[in-house]
Fold this protein.
Amino acid sequence: MKFLVLFATVLLFAAFQAEAQIYGPYDDYGDYGDYGYYDPYGPYGPPPDYGEPVPQRQPRTGRSGTIVIATREHTLVYTTPQGEQLAYPIAVGRQGKRWYGTTHVTSKRKYPEWRPTASMRQKNPRLPMVVRPGPSNPLGTRAIYLADGLLRIHGTNDPSSIGTNASSGCFRMYREDVEELYEMVRPGTRVIVRR
């Protein structure tokens, strides 16, 4: 009888254990949490003070002075104020590092510095506090800052990544493309990021 009770207990325990899911550590937790406020890669659009709220229906891509990023196609289309459309290949964020919505250009920088977050440096202790401008800088020669400055359209030190899902959420471009776009866009330019 004791054997039957023990056997039933083991069977019951095994049945519950079979339905339990075990999750490994969440490696990317806190990548952007060091800023202590808004996560631009979260499921919600940027707060209203970063630009227009995410519209209920997507605006047309042909609007003047607008950047439209189509992540699935790995393409950035800039419509000039004169109505000309220029398309560029880009690299987009890896799975789980993408943001969608509407924002605007907040600032631009030539030869930007790259500052890895504390959590990035914790994952990779070899990362320095600051990467100065130069051939090893992952931002390349130009950076166009979006939202609160965490999202960027920038160059790259790895041109082979263009056309792939490679970044931590930013949009990488070939050097000549980002330098051309940099000269055309102004702070306030509307940016629409689509799936």
About this structure: Confidence is low (pLDDT under 50) at residues 16-63. The two ends are 61 Å apart (CA to CA).
